[in-house]
Amino acid sequence: MKNQELTIVYHLGELRKRIIITLLTFIVFLFGSFIFVQKIYDWLIRDLNRELVVLGPTEILSIYFMISGVSAFALTIPIAAHQTWLFVKPGLTKKERKITLAYIPGFFTLFLTGLSFGYFVVYPMVLNFLLSLSKGQFETIFTAEKYFKFIINLTLPLGLVFEIPLIAMFLTSIGVINPMLLSKARKISYFLLTILAAVITPPDFMSQILVLVPLLVLYEFSVTLSKIVYRKKRKKQQLDITIIPMKKTS
C-alpha cells in the first residue's frame, strides 16, 4: 500500500513538474512575442485598406497581449507535446518512445497548417462577404479588438481541427480508439464538421463547400492513418503470440 501511495505521489510530482515547465515556456514566449508584437500587428493588417479604431488607451495593451498570447500558444505546442511525452515515457517501450516522439513535429506542423488555411483561405473569404453586405448601406468602422478577435475565432479552431489525423494515429497506437470506431462515427463526425463549416463561413453554398471539403478529407485521412497503425499493431501482437509458445517448447 505504501509503495502504491509513493508511486501516486511520484506521478503527481512529475505531472506538476511538466505543467510548470510548460507554463514557464508559455510565459517566456509571451514576453518574447510581446517584444515583436508591433511587427506581428503590422503583418496582420498589411492587406487591410482601412484604419483600425481603439476605444481607449488600455485597449491597445489588451490587443497586444491578445496577439502575443496566440503567438505564444502556437510556439508552446511542441514544448507541451514534448513534456507530455516525457511524462508518459517511463510506461513506454523503447520502440513506443521513438514512435510517440516522432508525433511532436507533426503536431506543430499541422497546427500551423490549420492556422494558415484559416488565415489565407477562410478569413479573406468571410471578411469580403461581410463587407459586401454593408457596401452602399453602412459606413464600416473596425475596432482593433473586434478585428483581431474575428481573426482568432476563425483561425484558432481550424489549427486545432487540423490536429485530428495525428491524434487519431496516437490514440489508435495506445488502444483508445480503432478505425472501426472512427468508421461508425463517420455520420456524426460529418454532421459536426458541416456545422463547423457553416458557423465559420458566410451563408453561401460555395464558401461552405470550400471549407467543408478539406475538413472531410482530413477526417477520411485520419481513418486511413488509423487503419495503418491498427494493422501494424495487430501484426505485432500476432507475432508476439507466435514467438512466446516457441520459446516455451524449446
Automatic annotation (TrEMBL):
GO BP, sorted A to Z: intracellular protein transmembrane transport; protein transport by the Tat complex
Membrane topology type: Multi-pass membrane protein
One family name in Pfam for this protein: TatC
Gene Ontology annotations for the cellular component aspect, listed alphabetically: TAT protein transport complex
GO terms assigned for molecular function: proton motive force dependent protein transmembrane transporter activity
Keywords noted in UniProt: Cell membrane, Membrane, Protein transport, Translocation, Transmembrane, Transmembrane helix, Transport
Keyword rRNA-binding: no
The keyword Chaperone is annotated on this UniProt entry: no
Protein localization: Cell membrane; Membrane
Transmembrane segments: 20-41, 61-81, 102-130, 150-176, 188-205, 211-230
Record-linked InterPro entries: Sec-indep_translocase_CS (IPR019820), TatC (IPR002033)
Domain of life from the UniProt record: Bacteria
Protein purpose: Part of the twin-arginine translocation (Tat) system that transports large folded proteins containing a characteristic twin-arginine motif in their signal peptide across membranes.
Matching NCBIfam families: tatC
Family indicated by similarity: Belongs to the TatC family.
Subunit structure: Forms a complex with TatA.
Protein name: Sec-independent protein translocase protein TatC
Source species of the chain: Neobacillus novalis
